[in-house]
Amino acid sequence: TLWAMAEGITGSCVDLWGLTKTGLAPEFTYVKSKEPHDFKPVPHSGKFSFLRPETAESLFYLYRLTGDSKYRLWGKTLFRAIQSHAQVEGEETFSSVINVNEVPSRKVDEMQSFVMAETFKYLYLLFSPADALSLDQFVLNTEGHPLHRPPRTRT
Length: 155
What we know:
Layout: H1 2-18, H2 54-66, H3 70-86, H4 113-127, E1 138-140, E2 146-148
Antiparallel strand pairs: 1-2
């Protein structure tokens, strides 16, 4: 079913975060073409992390739809990895990471705009009460901006 696929893909995304020494997802990796379809080692050209939001977004929606606390636990793991390895020392800001398999992490003097606009927004919403952003009243666009839903009409 589509539901099982959504849960499976999200689980794989969370596994990708846990695959590295920092717990941050690499920009990309490859999956073995034959069973078991495990992740291959992260290639050199994919070892950086921009702290992309898609996994946090998926956890938010799956938690809201199911109420299953495992999605919050997974989100907490992501957040802790970001705090531990992407936060700029002595600052309240975060940066991209050069190599997700190096501890301590080396940071790039940049932070993508989607980190605050989406990654942290979805993590915040994951742990917020449902009435902080009602999905009956709002829809989030592809950039994570809430837009009022039009009233439902019966046809």
